[in-house]
């Protein structure tokens, strides 16, 4: 089926491109699905499982993202603490400008 694209206006041409892209993606998915079925059939015919050949896959290790204990304390307001991670709090910067050292602010 040949389409004469010279006679298409801008909107018709864009519509054709979009339909062709969608169809191309559908064909790719079908091909991948058929290939996957062939691979599984071959593995099964040999008497193995997919996991025997390829392993269990990657196991994602997720960091806890838990609360980090505070490392520094504001001497003027002891309830203000900072873990030492992320942006420095204003009171920390002010204390450093005031002549204090980081080790002076340690808990």
Automatic annotation (TrEMBL):
Q: Which Gene3D superfamilies match?
A: Histone-like protein H-NS, C-terminal domain
Q: Where in the cell is it found?
A: Cytoplasm, Nucleoid
Q: Can you provide one Gene Ontology molecular function annotated for this UniProt record?
A: transcription cis-regulatory region binding
Which domain of life does the UniProt lineage start with?
Answer: Bacteria
Main location per UniProt?
cytoplasm
Name all DNA-binding protein H-NS-like C-terminal domain ranges.
62-107
Coiled coil: which residue ranges? Answer: none
A single cellular component GO annotation: cytosol
What is any Pfam family matched here? Histone_HNS
Do you know which InterPro entries this protein is assigned to?
Answer: H-NS_C_dom, H-NS_C_dom_sf
Classification via SMART domains: HNS
Any keyword Nucleotide-binding? no
> Any idea which UniProt keywords this protein has?
Cytoplasm, DNA-binding
Q: Which family does it belong to?
A: Belongs to the histone-like protein H-NS family.
Name used for this protein in its record: H-NS histone family protein
Q: Which organism is it from?
A: Dyella soli
